[in-house]
Specification:
The complex is a heterodimer of chains A (171) and B (528). Chain A contains six helices and seven strands; from the N terminus they run H-H-E-H-E-E-E-H-E-H-E-E-H. In chain A, helix 2 packs parallel to helix 6. Chain A has one domain: Rossmann fold (3-Layer(aba) Sandwich), CATH 3.40.50. Chain A has 171 residues and is of the alpha/beta class. Chain B is of the alpha+beta class and 528 residues long. Chain B folds into two domains: 113 residues, Beta Polymerase, domain 2 (2-Layer Sandwich); 316 residues, Cytochrome-c3 Hydrogenase, chain B, CATH 1.10.645. Helix content of chain B is 39%, strand content 17%. Chain B contains 17 helices and 15 strands. In chain B, the strands form five sheets. Chain B has a five-stranded mixed β-sheet, with helices on one face. A three-stranded antiparallel β-sheet of chain B has the order 8-9-10. Chain B is globular and about 60 Å long. The mean pLDDT of chain B is 96. Classes of the chains: A alpha/beta (171), B alpha+beta (528). Chains A and B meet through helix 1, strand 1, helix 3 and helix 4 of A and helix 4, helix 8, helix 9 and helix 17 of B.
Chain lengths: 171, 528
């Protein structure tokens, strides 16, 4: 136990400020996200992530938002287990036909008003997989999409920018 | 590797039992020994191979026009044997290998769904990859099936899959997925439980089926490398390497030494990144948040260094046919040495804390045991096999450049529980750091890319590499104009998903997440 406490003390808080190799943009984007969430979502934005057929690359980067470098929860963003608790769906693609109905049902289970962000090159337009007998391609081919975050996969910072853009829009 | 042991005695044995086998000279498939046989003998081949201790490693089909060709790849002591047979398009029937090799079960059902081949004595004729996006009378990997398919306007949910069921007083079912509670890939798990205890678990996968094999067709070599890099995002380097190796063998292109050393460097970085993330996620699944944040920190730092060195946090698209797309300058080599030394210290200190925390080890020890016998019967590999006394590592046992010139420190544990799978990951991080130091120290100079040569129509090759989950086997065959006619990548997850269903027996339902994470199969790599 002492070793754990010692380690925690020695490591300290790694969350921001970031080393100079990274953009100082993170703190700025984070603060803006926090401000918008304060204004429009009562201080708390609940996100349900839906993998609708991705290669798992996007999921790894979305997971990274919860590591101590980004620590996105400090800006009022948290990931929830049920669409019924969600304000926003973060959907990765391409939407496989085998996930099509599950995605539709997840969308239907999300209370209005709801936002949908299509994530990644595949979520945006089908990416490397496109449309085929197996894939519907873009998320927008299956459910209404409010914003798109491109990248293969988008970096955690790209994801934060995209979330900011989506919640900052006048709607 | 030369054709000799263990081929000759096995081929003699086949002759003895009356299985007529033709040995094929296929230079581009070397180092794999290729044989062909009549389809009626296919089942006997499976039985004899099992008796002679071959591991069933991969199986796939090909549409050759008049006939369909079925392949099965076996391995023993680092030697690979590719067996081939054909069935007619009008009567595509073949004995199954599943009665001898449980691991052949789902690959054969995949071939059944995608090619319309019936495996006559397969114990389970249910579909596997197909849900409801195409009809049971349609076979997407046959030539006459268009890549666009003939899908319905909207694809309905697959609620008709017939799961195994259990009955009796107090038995109940828990359906989970395809959309899971966490930020993970989709799939369905059906539990039968009594109280807290899992009686049976059955996975129904295929939700992320993206038609990889079909949309690979007609791509050029660069396009295939990009697609292979997305078979499973966390294994982008390993899958791209296996695909490039297959294509390079088919084309007779030799990547320069510096390129293969850089590939190995990226591959070991990928292994370290995933093991770091997994250890954090495993301990998080039993509520040990300290480990989650510490290992998350290390993984992020590591990924950032990959970004700085190679321009991508996962090193996607950095492997290309003929070599690699980015070079590493001397300053980065020095920085990477320091980084590896620092990580070694950090990991060792953290693991000491983890092993010393009874609240954690209490949850990991004796949880989700896969016995060596079970692991062997299922043909497991990678950290799953190596936590259950099953040591096989392509880098050591069938070494490909540059591993033929490097020492791979083998890691082996025997208890087969979640704890052993954590220990294997920990020790493999250290072994990879050793390799990274050796790779940086011995990095040859010179070019990083050889000019691509368009291979002749019909050229084929197989690439076999040790990805971070285990052995990856990729087959590529070219058609005319340097375009791909067939691509099949076998992800290690085909063998570890069935292991999860076995090791969860008699564990409690709340331990499923940690058991699942300790195996960490790829859905995308399995569903293709």
């Amino acid at each position: 136990m002492l070793r754990i406490l010692g380690k925690i003390q020695r490591i300290g808080i790694v969350t921001e400020p970031l080393p100079p190799c990274d953009e100082p943009a993170l703190a700025e984007i984070g603060e803006q996200i926090k401000a918008h969430i304060g204004e429009r979502f009562g201080g708390s934005l609940a996100i349900r992530e839906v993998d609708a057929g991705s290669c798992n690359g996007c999921e790894l980067e979305i997971n990274a938002l919860n590591n101590p470098w980004y620590g996105i929860e400090r800006y009022g963003v948290h990931f929830v287990a049920s669409p019924r608790h969600a304000d926003l769906l973060l959907v990765t693609g391409p939407v496989s036909r085998h996930m099509e109905e599950a995605l539709r049902r997840t969308y239907a289970a999300t209370p209005e008003p709801r936002l949908v962000i299509a994530v990644g090159a595949c979520g945006a337009d089908g990416g490397e997989f496109g449309e085929s007998y197996a894939s519907r391609g873009a998320v927008a081919n299956v459910i209404p999409v409010d914003a798109v975050i491109r990248g293969c996969p988008p970096t955690p910072l790209d994801l934060m920018r995209g979330i900011l853009e989506a919640i900052g829009r006048k709607g | 590797m030369t054709a000799g042991m263990p081929f000759a005695p096995f081929l003699a044995r086949l002759a003895e039992v009356g299985v007529a086998v033709e040995t094929v000279t296929a230079p581009t498939l070397v180092p794999i020994q290729t044989i062909t046989l009549a389809n009626g003998d296919w089942g006997r081949l499976g039985r004899e191979a099992d008796d002679w201790g071959w591991r069933w490693a991969a199986g796939w089909g090909e549409d050759l026009g008049e006939t369909l060709r079925i392949n099965a790849c076996f391995e023993q002591a680092g030697a690979y044997l590719l067996a081939r047979t054909t069935v007619t398009r009008t009567h595509p029937m073949l004995p199954s290998h599943t009665p001898y090799y449980p691991v052949a079960d789902r690959p054969e059902r995949h071939t059944q769904d995608m090619f319309g081949v019936a495996f006559s004595d397969h114990p389970d004729a249910r579909r596997w990859t197909r849900h409801r996006a195409w009809k049971s009378s349609e076979y997407p990997l046959r030539r006459d099936f268009p890549a666009a398919g003939r899908p319905p306007d909207t694809t309905p949910a697959d609620h008709q899959y017939k799961f195994f069921s259990a009955h009796g007083s107090g038995v109940y079912e828990i359906p989970v997925g395809p959309v899971h509670a966490g930020i993970i890939e989709p799939g369905h798990f059906r539990f039968q439980a009594v109280g807290e205890t899992v009686l049976n678990l059955e996975a129904h996968l295929g939700y992320t089926h993206k038609g990889v094999e079909k949309i690979a067709e007609c791509r050029d070599a660069d396009g295939l490398a990009r697609l292979a890099g997305r078979v499973s995002g966390d294994s982008t380097v390993a899958h791209a390497w296996a695909a490039c190796m297959a294509m390079e063998r088919a084309a007779g292109v030799q990547p320069p030494p510096r390129a293969v050393w850089l590939r190995a460097l990226m591959s070991e970085r990928e292994r370290v990144a995933n093991h770091l993330g997994d250890i954090g996620a495993i301990v998080n699944d039993v509520g040990f948040a300290f480990g989650f944040y510490q290992f998350g920190r290390l993984r992020e730092t590591w990924q950032r260094a990959s970004m700085t060195a190679f321009g991508h946090r996962f090193m996607m698209d950095r492997l290309v046919p003929g070599g690699v797309a980015v070079d590493l300058d001397n300053a980065r080599i020095t920085a990477m040495r320091d980084e590896a030394a620092a990580l070694r210290q950090q990991v060792s200190k953290l693991m000491t804390i983890l092993y010393d925390s009874p609240s954690l080890t209490n949850r990991l020890l004796t949880t989700g045991i896969l016995t060596p016998e079970q692991a062997s019967a299922l043909g497991c590999m990678g950290y799953v096999g190596r936590a259950s006394s099953l040591y096989f590592d392509v880098r050591r046992d069938a070494p490909y450049p540059p591993y033929d010139r490097l020492k791979v420190n083998g890691v082996l544990h025997h208890s087969g529980d979640v704890n052993a799978r954590v220990r294997v990951r920990h020790e493999e991080i250290i072994a990879s750091l050793d390799l990274i130091q050796a790779l940086l120290a011995g990095m040859p100079g010179g070019a990083i890319h050889s000019e691509w040569q368009t291979p002749a129509e019909g050229s084929e090759g197989i690439g076999i590499v040790e990805g971070w989950r285990g052995e990856i086997i990729s087959y590529a065959r070219f058609g005319g104009g340097g375009r791909i006619a067939r691509f099949f990548p076998r992800d290690p997850s085909w063998t570890t998903w069935p292991a999860l269903e076995v090791l969860i027996h008699d564990n409690i339902v709340p331990d499923f997440p940690v058991c699942n994470k300790s195996v960490n199969g790829s859905y995308s790599g399995n569903d293709l």
